[in-house]
Automatic annotation (TrEMBL):
<feature type="domain" description="Rubredoxin-like">
    <location>
        <begin position="1"/>
        <end position="35"/>
    </location>
</feature>
<protein>
    <submittedName>
        <fullName>Flavin reductase</fullName>
    </submittedName>
</protein>
<dbReference type="InterPro" id="IPR048574">
    <property type="entry name" value="RUBY_RBDX"/>
</dbReference>
<dbReference type="GO" id="GO:0042602">
    <property type="term" value="F:riboflavin reductase (NADPH) activity"/>
</dbReference>
<dbReference type="GO" id="GO:0010181">
    <property type="term" value="F:FMN binding"/>
</dbReference>
<dbReference type="InterPro" id="IPR002563">
    <property type="entry name" value="Flavin_Rdtase-like_dom"/>
</dbReference>
<dbReference type="InterPro" id="IPR050268">
    <property type="entry name" value="NADH-dep_flavin_reductase"/>
</dbReference>
<dbReference type="Pfam" id="PF01613">
    <property type="entry name" value="Flavin_Reduct"/>
</dbReference>
<dbReference type="InterPro" id="IPR012349">
    <property type="entry name" value="Split_barrel_FMN-bd"/>
</dbReference>
<dbReference type="GO" id="GO:0005506">
    <property type="term" value="F:iron ion binding"/>
</dbReference>
<keyword id="KW-0560">Oxidoreductase</keyword>
<dbReference type="Pfam" id="PF21349">
    <property type="entry name" value="RUBY_RBDX"/>
</dbReference>
<dbReference type="InterPro" id="IPR024934">
    <property type="entry name" value="Rubredoxin-like_dom"/>
</dbReference>
Length: 202
């Protein structure tokens, strides 16, 4: 049975359609909104679902950005190209990550594409916080050609991204950044690393 809530007085009506008139405040049917019930998931179901999700085919990337003269980066498996005309992409990043703060400040970031030889980079940028260490210390990197972003030199290559602030989506713990891909460069010919490959060989 569907549930409808009056947006004026919060009255709840059960039925396939909202009432013509709210019996409490007299508002019309247009004042009612359909309520959706949250599906409850047990801890066992959540863990089983997570095991299935490990079979998703993800790439692995280092997302790099800056804030003023400070630079940082983080490992990610969530970058995707969304459209090719124009070139647009998306990536979900935890709001608590320092890299997310830098992206919010600068409005730009680079996506470094990792190859099967980049295990150390996954660990360096994924298992440490830039609040505690300089992740780029001892790392070979340069700056990107258009946006002057820090990019690693021993990866497959990178793309440069400008955040479309009006299109980003708040996902609670994460922000889904929608971006314009404004540049990029191939650096090395390496087989791309997948998340599954990394988990099997780390």
């Amino acid at each position: 049975m569907k549930k409808w809530k009056c947006k004026v007085c919060q009255y709840i009506h059960e039925g396939e359609l909202p009432p013509d008139i709210c019996p409490v405040c007299g508002a019309s049917s247009e004042a009612f909104e359909l309520l959706t019930e949250e599906i409850q998931v047990s801890e066992d179901e959540k863990q089983a679902t997570q095991q299935i999700l490990f079979n998703c085919t993800y790439g692995l990337y280092i997302i790099t950005s800056f804030s003023g003269e400070k630079i940082n980066g983080m490992t990610s498996n969530s970058f995707v190209q969304m459209t090719d005309t124009p070139l647009q992409g998306a990536v979900g990043i935890n709001k608590n990550h320092l890299t997310s703060e830098y992206i919010l400040d600068s409005g730009v970031f680079a996506v470094n594409f990792l190859g099967n030889n980049n295990h150390n980079e996954v660990k360096r940028f994924g298992y440490n916080s830039g609040r505690n260490i300089d992740k780029f210390k001892g790392i070979d990197y340069t700056t990107s050609e258009k946006l002057n972003l820090p990019v690693l030199t021993n990866t497959i290559g990178y793309v440069e991204c400008e955040v479309q602030r009006d299109k980003c989506i708040d996902l609670g713990t994460h922000t889904l950044y929608i971006v314009s891909i404004v540049g990029g460069k191939n650096i090395n010919k390496i087989e791309p690393m997948t998340y599954a490959y990394y988990r099997a060989t780390k």
